Amino acid sequence: MTEVVVDHAQGAVVPVHALRERELASFLEGRPAFVKAFAELSEFKAKAGQVLVVPDAAGAIDQVLLGLGAAGDAQGFRVLGARLPAGDYRIASAPAEIAPDQIALAFALGSYRFDRYKKKGETHPRLVAAEGVDVAQVRSIAHACALARDMVNTPAGDMGPLQIETIAREIAEQYGAGITVVTGEGLLEANYPAVHAVGRAATPERAPRMIEITWGQEGHPLVALVGKGVVFDTGGLDIKPSAGMRNMKKDMGGAAHALALGRMIMAAGLPVRLAILLPVVENAISGDAMRPGDVLDSRKGLTIEVGNTDAEGRLILADALTRAGELEPALTIDLATLTGAARMALGPQLPPYYTDDEELAAQIEAAAAAVADPLWRMPLWKGYVDSLDSDVADMKNDSDAWAQAGSVTAALFLQKFAPSGPWVHLDIFAWNPRGRPGWPSGGEAQSIRALFAMIAGRFS
After folding, report:
1. Mind listing the pLDDT tens digit for each residue in 236-281?
2. Top-tier CATH class for 141-459
3. What pLDDT is stored for residue 2 in this prediction?
4. Side by side, which strands form the sheet with 304-305?
5. Where do the structural domains in the chain lie, given as residue ranges?
6. Which pLDDT score is estimated for 1?
7. Is 228 designated active site?
8. How would DSSP label each residue in 361-398?
9. Homologous superfamily of 5-133 in CATH?
């Protein structure tokens, strides 16, 4: 990844003035008449996302005005990474309550491009970070977010179970972590029957696997990160329509986010032990695919009736969450691109999270606000638990139609397998369906900056 946040310039540095709408008039009063006239001619009103490049008499860039709207936060600076021409810039003025490190991180996030399959050669603007900004940490978080986005953007043909394992091994090696991988028929011997059942229909070179990374010093509290790793979801025998299948390369977004969050934690050296648990499968179709009506065993010992083969993510997470419980974590976080119902409820930009732990919820809310990484708490409504009852097994993987709330019932399913103690489930989308400057269409890192900030504060 090109470094777009630096601690010193290589040449001339262009000042950037970030303005809210109410600040524009007073700002322009103190500027040369040309700047005021140019802003008026360009209809610059400091609306959110507006960027005005102001030239000097020789035609070079003299300064840049950035609009933050009525009450913009740090994420408003993402547009700079996408809209500015190549060169070095610095933030000359900005609202005092927006932290310089969050501005630098937003600039880096907005500079992201997925160009694996394109001819290279694009240049990027660079931000000279304000004094006191920890440039190394900004880069670490930006690189982790870029990793998640790259993994989500990469087609399933190039991001199968083996490729995710390879990335996991590279991260483990980089940070001195341990890693174990159980593959194929070995999943049955190691008691991951649900992971095996979901992934067994794939070709041998794309066999299902359970990846476990461990890191940290004994005596530190254990944080378990569980990520859904369905590299492609056909829907199984309950096959998706073509429109629903088109972007299913992103169904491993939970695994990508768990790896990215784990990488942030290890890079920062937080005082925790870490377990990253990734059930990785392809929900393929073959003569060996699981069928509607099949009854699966699970690591926990509960039997699960398969009501719908397209509700496969919760099946593999069930085994992984059970494994997490065996490690006796102080905190468990699972991340999954789990339900379309979450998008129906909150849309693509606002991921829901579920927890019964009030202290944990308060910490997540505070962290999300502090780093402008939005989340929304949804209820683990016990009135819908009965919708998961099965006539032939301990439970089923698709809730009765009367319950309707598909994201809630999926979370209730996972709660049956979650470790005791603090646990939170995030039903992320990991995708921008509408591209705009600073937020290109495609893979997006959601919630992990907030979770990193929460973990850093909780275990400091």
Report:
1. 999 999 999 999 999 999 999 999 999 999 999 999 999 999 999 9
2. alpha beta
3. 78
4. 295-296, 304-305, 395-396
5. 5-133, 141-459
6. 62
7. no
8. HHHHHHHHHHTT---EE----GGGGGGG--SSSSEESS
9. Leucine Aminopeptidase, subunit E, domain 1 (3.40.220.10)
Percent of the chain at pLDDT exceeding 90: 96
For residue 123, what are its two tokens?
A: 């240049």
Helix axes 100-110, 135-153, angle to 10 degrees: 30
SS3 of 350, please?
Answer: coil
Joined together, the tokens standing for residue 323 give 């494994």
- The residue from 273, 314, 323, 396 that is catalytic is 314
Given this model, what pLDDT does residue 10 score? 82
User: Pick the catalytic residue: 36, 45, 240, 377?
Assistant: 240
Encoded tokens for 14:
């262009």
Q: What gap in Å lies between CA 76 and CA 91, rounded to an integer?
A: 13
Which of 319, 337, 323 lies closest to 275, judged by CA? 323
Cα–Cα nearest to 249, from 147, 126, 153 = 153
Query: Active-site residue 314, yes or no?
Result: yes
Q: Which residue has the tokens 């890693």?
A: 179
Tokens of 146: 């870029």
Q: Is the pTM of this model over 0.90?
A: yes
Query: Low-confidence residues of the chain, pLDDT below 50?
Result: none
User: What does the alpha-carbon distance between residue 253 and residue 296 come to, in Å, rounded to a whole number?
Assistant: 25
User: What is the DSSP code (8-state) at residue 130?
Assistant: P
